[in-house]
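Example record

Each entry pairs one chain with its bound ligand, AR6.
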Amino acid sequence: MRCRLEGGVLELVQGDITLQQVDAIVNAANRRLAGGGGVDGAIHRRGGSAIMEETRRRYPEGCPTGQAVITAAGELPSRFVIHAVGPVWRGGTHGEPALLASAYRHCLALAVANDCRSIAFPSLSTGAYRYPVSRAARTALAAVIEFLEEREAPELVRFVLFDEATYRAYAGALGENTGVSGSGRSRGPRSSG
Ligand code: AR6
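Structure tokens for the complex follow.
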């Protein structure tokens, strides 16, 4: 599913973030930047040890929730990995929506500051951190759309959703945000619908 907004193009695809040929991919990291499972595990496995070496050297203090840091991408097809720390879901009354939106904004700002024309996001916080996916999708898309409209960059923002249910949640939320219907489904980085 592809949507042309005033400030750039927004895409939803189902797939694996580590295969994306974009300038920057986003990692769903933790505050210690210590690696883990899910997206984080996949990125470090495929990208090789250089990513963790750079992370330890440049960001020994880790990264606060709601923020992000950037490294090179090792053996991955992208140029950069942006390591974002989304909130752990604790019922929704601990500032989770603001922290989630902030994580997305930090990633986009880092991408623009590093001359990235394209960026791919996973669904931050909706795996190990248990953020309800339909709520996360609404917050994530609203944050990205607002950034694109304000800054008119990066040119392409792609959400790479791992499973069907997550894809559907984002497609539904994009419809709510933009009025675009979820029928224009696309798979893989090059297709559009
Ligand atoms: N490509 C795209 N999406 C993926 C991939 C992949 N290769 N693998 C999993 N997902 P999670 P979080 C989906 O748990 O909730 C780690 O241990 C997954 O199905 O990766 O932010 C970190 O070290 C889900 O929809 O991230 C942290 O400690 C989404 O990505 C913690 O987990 C996010 O799931 C972060 O938890």
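Helices lie at 38-47, 49-58, 96-113, 133-151, 164-178.
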